[in-house]
Amino acid sequence: MLGEAELVAHSPRPDLADLGRISTVLNSDTPATWVVTGDSITHGALHTNGWRSYPEHWTERVRWELGKPKNRDFVIDSGVSGATSAELVARFGERVTAFSPRVVSIMIGTNDIATSGLGPEAYRANLVSLVGSVRALPGSPVPVLQSPNPVDPAKWPGRVGLSRYAQVMGEVAAAQDVVFVDHYNDWLNGNGGQVPLSLLNDGLHPDERGHHRLALKMIKDLRVFDPGSRVCSLRVP
């Protein structure tokens, strides 16, 4: 007979209310603006080698493949190379508020670990602040937290502790009832616990394959995956 803790572990977790709110946005006739913000990984410059970044894959999935009227939605990529959680807090108005979003995705942390004064607890406080700022906007937009991907420890030894930042983001998401897209563990779990170097361009930034992997995880977790979709079934050579 299972004990209480085991029953909890084996029981399906109830859906977050925010997943239902995202579903409402996806099924609404009213145009919506999605803001996808973060650092260079979200910015998507250079390291995609001319292929689409994960926000661009998401745009294709929502604004084209889901058909009308979602083609009237907008997806704004306000990621900026070099950004940290502290900078995003300071520049929240221009990176998020300015676009009157319905959903706000935040992927941040890769630069925090390499920035003085932005240890895990400062990072935690900034994430809590960002979630609160999103929810406080008109219409109470839906926040989505997306963890950074793992990096090559041989090339980036100063960022080997990035797993702690991904863990902190997961803890904040759980405490704040926020949808959490855990790329960090998704990459490791799909590769025997090792960093999948083939998904990285320079050991840190995802390449074209890495960005598609990020997009697929986002698409699956936000429940718009379809194996017949060209985005979902794309094979990057």
Question: What does this protein look like?
Answer:
Residues 38-212 form the SGNH hydrolase-type esterase domain. This is SGNH/GDSL hydrolase family protein. Keywords: Hydrolase. There is one protein chain. This protein is α/β, with parallel strands linked by helices and 237 residues long. It has a single domain, classed as 3-Layer(aba) Sandwich (Rossmann fold), CATH 3.40.50. 41% of the residues lie in helices and 10% in strands. The protein is built from ten helices and five strands; from the N terminus they run ααβααβααβαβαβαα. The chain has a five-stranded parallel sheet with strand order 2-1-3-4-5, sandwiched between helices. Helix 4 packs across helix 10 (208-221) and helix 7 (120-136) runs parallel beside helix 8 (162-176). The longest helix has 17 residues, at 120-136. The chain is globular, with a radius of gyration of 17 Å.
